[in-house]
């Protein structure tokens, strides 16, 4: 136990006893004798905000992370006091505030402690910059585990680790290297079957220590700003993620093609090269929806220009690619070349849109074009200007989507890799230095990009991709994990990073498949594709200076394997789209580490490799060369091996065979998995029937299929098709009920139901309680039933 004297010695200050308490509707203010004010706001029954002021003064309340549309409201709220503490009670939680120390404790209604202050809030005055270093320390509970925190390339359970949030261009980063490209100061704690989350909404550099320095303590602190955090209660982990996502927002549904396979490289040019790549996809019948143009399409790396020698007529080229089913995605960076004859530069100078240093000159830094100035995206006027710059690209030339890169912002040839800390920012009317604006700079850039792209691809849906991110960026853009390396270790990292990002509210994420730096061999590439098709954003990208990284670059055997897996992704599109719909609507993470799938099973708490894709597909990548399979943990319940329908009982480790053409893949018993036919790109085929792979189970299981036009906004006005299936299995009977919602009429009329693992021979089939002739619904025999899509109940009974 650290004593107060020790603390003072270290320069820390801490609150003393409460002298005043005030309630204002859902807010409670506790003031201490030495001028600390704790503001507690009840956001929802399971979401509580804690905010601390020193010297009686809060800073203006402003957050880029919090979604202005986040829902609020509680069903019960009460505050009482006894001799030693105040007690705030919601329908889910009790918050105790200690009268002597201002320390807090959160418990469930039964009094089980979920989270409690150790030293609680304390601070150190910052004489160099002004303000405080604000700190919080919590007691680490017995057996507590920690998850979340964005893109950290380290073991998924953060217990015993210390991490830092300062968005950084970290080329060819290594395992455990930190910080990386994202700042997502949100973690999930799990102990005694209870899970909660903490989101420290502070855009300064933040640090988190998960029982690293002292085993009994978990703490977090920031270089400035306020101690301002949100507490979310589960008790289930997925509810914690949902509550966090509800606060910081989820993206709207992307166009369905964004869920296809995408091909990128630094760089495809000139036009003939782009066309050649596109042609090879079609010739080799490898599905692909998008081709990316990296910086070399620009004229001397000037954003919003074209190198006309390489791309003489971009509009025509994009149009021709479109006719062949390819969308074109272009890169835009934040650095604007200092060039008096360049119109973007001129406009920014005329309007005073560039960031300035403390003493007045424009902030300068080297990036691809040489010396650049950087727009201050934290100024709403600059964002509006930036959004408008996309008009010509999207509306006239026909570009489909945009990726924003280097938006940390990355600056070359300086040890800090970014803007000087004295750089000034508008911060939406709360002028600040770069210390405060750094972590949100890329987010505000991509927010402006999103506004512009959305405006000018309308009535289509936008797709925007970002490299840098702060909490809440998921509302505007998908993301990738930056410049990884073509090594087996990086395949492991990619797997952990994607799961972690999903647990951090950021599900629309992918890695540079195959690795950005260096060159994978065919085996690594194939293994990475096998994993990558189960990531929400699925794109091959590489630095291009070590050789080719297209599906056909590694010989015929690998090409065939890669094709097979990309085809599987296209078959699974309706399942993936339904996952996205859930994420977008409810904040449900698209990938679940198995601890989030079954937190009560303590064997899952330290697993890194296995994850659930959506809600019913278990995936576990092969992460080393020459493997014929691997040991993996199968979560509790019954699972079908996807490749041979063998049923395995979970709750244990198992050796799973997976030669180079397979990945360990299991389907939850009882699941109904929707599939489309393989298409070379989204929309190539009219879907004539929906395949439903039904995996028999005894008992009940729910499955969902969400569909809509795949683009445009009609779904917001009810033009969607939602099918909820309830499977009920018995030893001699299988019933599937369907509950439908929405006004979208799908093109197909029939379901092709493929029955897996049916334990009996079919004797009778009933549709909506009427017996039908078996030959009518099972014309081809086998276990395939073809029925009209509108049934409400299908019953199959044994002979
Ligand atoms: C950065 C990006 C990478 C891109 C390159 C050139 O390294 O992370 O994806 O290819 O810049 O634009």
From TrEMBL:
> Where would I find the Glycoside hydrolase family 31 TIM barrel domain in this sequence?
251-579
Which GO molecular function terms does the record list?
Answer: alpha-1,4-glucosidase activity; carbohydrate binding
Query: What positions does the domain Glycoside hydrolase family 31 N-terminal occupy?
Result: 38-209
Q: Keyword set for this entry?
A: Glycosidase, Hydrolase
Alphabetized InterPro entries for the sequence = DUF5110 (IPR033403), Gal_mutarotase_sf_dom (IPR011013), GH (IPR017853), Glyco_hydro_31_C (IPR048395), Glyco_hydro_31_N_dom (IPR025887), Glyco_hydro_31_TIM (IPR000322), Glyco_hydro_b (IPR013780)
UniProt entry tagged with the keyword Signal: no
A Gene Ontology BP annotation from the UniProt entry: carbohydrate metabolic process
What residue stretches are annotated with the Glycosyl hydrolase family 31 C-terminal domain?
587-673
Class of this enzyme: hydrolase
Top-level taxon: Bacteria
Which portions of this protein are annotated as coiled-coil regions? none
What region holds the DUF5110 domain? 689-757
Q: What is its EC number?
A: 3.2.1.20
The record's family statement is: Belongs to the glycosyl hydrolase 31 family.
Q: What is this protein called?
A: Alpha-glucosidase, family GH31
Q: Which gene encodes it?
A: malA
């Amino acid at each position: 136990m650290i004593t107060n004297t020790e603390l003072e010695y270290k320069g820390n200050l801490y609150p003393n006893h409460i002298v005043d308490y005030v309630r204002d509707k859902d807010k409670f203010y506790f003031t201490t004798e030495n001028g600390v004010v704790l503001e507690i706001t009840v956001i929802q029954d399971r979401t509580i905000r804690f905010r601390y002021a020193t010297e009686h003064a809060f800073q203006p309340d402003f957050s880029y992370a919090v979604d202005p549309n986040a829902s609020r409201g509680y069903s019960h709220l009460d505050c009482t006091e006894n001799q030693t503490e105040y007690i705030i009670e919601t329908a889910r939680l009790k918050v105790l505030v200690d009268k002597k120390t201002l320390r807090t404790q959160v418990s469930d209604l039964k009094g089980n402690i979920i989270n409690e202050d150790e030293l609680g809030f304390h601070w150190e005055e910052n004489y160099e910059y002004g303000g405080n270093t604000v700190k919080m320390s919590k007691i680490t509970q017995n057996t507590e585990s920690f998850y979340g925190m964005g893109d950290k390339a380290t073991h998924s359970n953060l217990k015993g680790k210390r991490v830092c949030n300062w968005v950084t261009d970290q080329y060819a980063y290594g395992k455990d290297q930190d910080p990386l490209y994202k700042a997502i100061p949100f973690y999930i704690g799990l102990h005694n079957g209870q899970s909660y989350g903490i989101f420290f909404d502070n855009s300064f550099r933040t640090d988190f220590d998960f029982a690293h320095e002292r085993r009994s303590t978990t703490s977090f602190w920031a270089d400035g700003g306020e101690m301002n955090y949100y507490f979310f209660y589960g008790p289930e982990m997925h509810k914690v993620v949902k509550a966090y996502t509800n606060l910081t927002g989820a993206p709207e549904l992307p166009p369905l093609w964004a869920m296809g396979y995408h091909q990128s490289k630094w760089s495809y040019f000139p036009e003939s090269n782009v066309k050649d790549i596109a042609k090879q996809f079609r010739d080799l019948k490898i599905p692909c929806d998008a081709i990316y143009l990296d910086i070399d399409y620009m004229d001397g790396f000037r954003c919003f220009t074209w190198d006309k020698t390489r791309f003489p007529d971009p509009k025509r080229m994009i149009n021709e690619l479109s006719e062949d089913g390819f969308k074109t995605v272009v890169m835009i960076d934040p650095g604007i070349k200092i060039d008096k004859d360049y119109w973007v530069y001129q406009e920014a100078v005329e309007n005073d849109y560039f960031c300035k240093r403390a003493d007045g000159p424009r902030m300068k830094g080297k990036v691809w074009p040489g010396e650049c100035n950087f727009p201050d995206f934290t100024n709403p006027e600059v964002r509006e200007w930036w959004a408008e710059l996309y008009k010509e690209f999207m509306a006239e030339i026909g570009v489909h989507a945009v990726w924003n890169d280097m938006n940390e912002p990355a600056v070359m040839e300086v040890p800090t890799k970014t803007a000087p800390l004295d750089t000034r920012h508008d911060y939406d009317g709360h002028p600040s230095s770069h210390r405060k604006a750094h972590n949100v700079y890329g987010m505000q850039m991509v927010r402006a990009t999103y506004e512009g792209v959305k405006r000018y691809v309308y009535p289509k849906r936008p797709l925007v991709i970002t490299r840098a991110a702060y909490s809440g960026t998921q509302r505007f853009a998908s993301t990738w994990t930056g410049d990884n390396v073509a090594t087996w270790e990086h395949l492991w990292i990619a797997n952990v990073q994607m799961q972690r990002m999903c647990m951090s509210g950021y599900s629309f994420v992918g890695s540079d498949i195959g690795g950005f730096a260096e060159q994978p061999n065919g085996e690594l590439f194939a293994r990475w594709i096998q994993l990558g098709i189960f990531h929400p954003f699925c794109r091959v990208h590489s630095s291009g200076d070590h050789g080719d990284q297209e599906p056909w670059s590694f010989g015929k055997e690998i090409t065939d394997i890669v094709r097979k897996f990309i085809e599987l992704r296209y078959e699974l599109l309706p399942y993936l789209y339904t996952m996205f719909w859930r994420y977008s609507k409810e904040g449900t993470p698209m990938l679940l580490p198995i601890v989030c799938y079954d937190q009560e099973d303590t064997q899952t708490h330290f697993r890194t490799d296995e994850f659930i894709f959506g809600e019913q597909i278990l995936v576990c990548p092969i992460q080393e060369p020459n493997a014929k399979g691997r040991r993996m943990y199968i979560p509790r319940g019954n699972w079908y091996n996807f490749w041979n329908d063998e049923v395995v009982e979970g709750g244990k480790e198992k050796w799973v065979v997976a030669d180079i053409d397979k990945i360990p893949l299991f389907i939850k018993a009882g699941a109904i998995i929707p599939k489309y036919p393989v298409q070379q790109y989204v929309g190539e085929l009219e879907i004539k029937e929906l395949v439903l792979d039904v995996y028999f189970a005894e008992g009940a299981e729910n499955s969902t299929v969400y569909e809509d036009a795949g683009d445009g906004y009609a779904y917001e006005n009810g033009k969607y098709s939602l099918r909820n299936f309830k499977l009920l299995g018995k030893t001699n009977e299988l019933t599937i009920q369907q509950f439908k919602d929405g006004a979208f009429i799908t093109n197909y009329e029939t379901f092709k139901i493929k029955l897996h693992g049916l334990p009996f021979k079919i004797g009778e089939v009933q549709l909506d309680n009427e017996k039908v002739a078996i030959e009518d619904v099972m014309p081809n025999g086998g276990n395939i039933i073809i029925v009209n899509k509108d049934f409400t109940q299908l019953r199959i009974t044994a002979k």
